[in-house]
Amino acid sequence: MDTPPEERFDRITRLATSIFDVDIALVSLVDEERQWFKSRQGISLTQTCRKESFCAHAIQGESIFEIEDASQDSRFADNVLVTAHRGIRFYAGVPLTTANGFRVGTLCIIHPEPRRLSPSQRQVLTDLAACVEDEINRIGLENELTRVNDVKRQLADDESRQRSLVDALAALNDISTSNHLGIDRQFQEALALGCRYLNLQIGIISRIHRGVFEVVAVTAPKDVTLAAGQCLPLANTYCDMTLKTSGLLAVHDTTESDLRHHPCYDTFGLKAYMGSSIQLGDQLFGTVSFSSADPRQHRFAETDTLFIKLLSRWIGSALDRQRVDALKSEFVSTVSHELRTPLTAMTGGLKLVLGGATGELPESTHKMLSMALKNGERLSLLINDLLDIEKLLAGQINIICQPRELGELLKAALLENQPYADQYGVALRLETLSKDRFINVDVLRFQQVMANLLSNAAKFSRLNSDVVIYCDEFDKEIRINVKDSGCGIPEAFRGRIFQKFSQADASDRRVKGGTGLGLSISKAMTEQMGGTIGFQSTEGEGSTFYITFPYAEVPTRVRH
């Protein structure tokens, strides 16, 4: 298609117009989107879209496709080629078939007046079409069609690669957002994904410092002796060349490139390689690379380059987040240590006063000091958790669960947290249960979770509004809901809300305060007590956080 006119075809279309006394004769070639006229008589157009094409119908059959009056045919009556001035009325087309059986177009005749071919005329048109087929097969138009098919295959391959890239990036996104995977496991999963995507055997994340290549993470066959922490001279690795070529190097067969003279080729015999630099801000961290002892059959595609660039950026971001988390953890640990001593002294003093060391207390004073002691003990517990947050999230904090009556737990939570809510002009309101319900929890941990949820709800609610605690009762479990009237949670933040140090506004100018640890701790505690935690939120309308626990059996002492 899209080749210059050729006399061998024009000769046949001229004969057709003369023999059949028609205005138009065409050798029309049809692809997925259009019909293109290799030869044309009586028309200036060189192509039309396939949707308007009569020939697209003709190539569906094996013999002549004849329309005596297109204006009376429901398939074509509203076709623009029919409704136009001196539009098509009569059409007859014979499908053209190549030697290998492909129907590629038609020899067709067209006239603006209705007519019908006689049997002898149909045979003549068929014979002329056979002449066109002979020309196609004899002189090599089929080579052109083969080229078109090659282009189609290339487009199909490109589409397949694009789909593979999208699938790989979706898998990488799943890895990066998996809260249960630590960064080391995420790197292992990402390297394994890269090996599969690029069809290479070895994946390495390296740190480079002062000419030394240190393996940070690696995935490789069992017979490859590479491990995290292993160090090599940078000059003996292909990454040396990666850093010298703008941070990206891709060689599908090193035996056909200058890399066959590189020390890495002599030492490891790697015959295929793709690597990209990893940046931490404006500083070089190292590289991510994939390689194999066998060459690739095909060169790396643009989609491969895009994949490794995106992977290296994600690794850099993950390493930077790890560094920031470490700084935050160190800060929290330092502050917590500084708080522990005065807090211990404070709670100790309160216990002495409540124990009568200073004489009998008025009931109201005793009540307030008891509440202060409970909150001090909870703060002390929180500080201990902050000092070992990793142990908490790993499920290593000691929790003792016992059946407890939920209504009493919620009343206590409301009572203990109302003074905090008062600071924000918010009232805590409890909707009573239909009957006594028991859940199996550690009381201190449960109250700490409720305190986190209620304090967050109070902080983010509107002035003079209510935070409502209510329960949804199901057959085997009960859901405790804390509903606020705040501004809701931004869509972009929801996937990170239970991560450590996560806050929708992480700037130092935020007005709500907090460490960004409360929900992470609450999630870990809830899950360790056998429950689940979640939330629903609508921006501008508020949020509902909930914890769900199975029902516990009623204790014997209560049953009787």
Give an overview in words.
Strand 2 and strand 3 (47-49) form a beta hairpin. The chain has 15 helices and 19 strands. It is α+β, with helices and mostly antiparallel strands and 560 residues long. The longest helix has 53 residues, at 302-354. It has helices at residues 7-20, 55-58, 80-83, 119-139, 141-176, 183-198, 239-244, 263-268, 302-354, 363-387, 389-393, 406-422, 443-460, 518-528, 556-559; strands spanning 24-30, 34-41, 47-49, 65-67, 90-97, 103-111, 202-209, 212-219, 231-233, 248-251, 272-280, 283-292, 402-405, 427-430, 438-441, 466-473, 477-483, 532-538, 542-550. Mean pLDDT is 86; it is low at 506-511. It has four domains: 7-139, Beta-Lactamase (2-Layer Sandwich); 168-318, 2-Layer Sandwich (Beta-Lactamase); 325-392, Helix Hairpins (Orthogonal Bundle); 397-559, Histidine kinase-like ATPase, C-terminal domain (Heat Shock Protein 90, 2-Layer Sandwich), CATH 3.30.565.10. Strands 3-2-1-6-5-4 form a six-stranded antiparallel sheet. The chain is 43% helix and 22% strand. Helix 1 runs antiparallel to helix 4 (119-139), helix 5 (141-176) runs antiparallel to helix 6 and helix 6 (183-198) runs antiparallel to helix 9 (302-354).
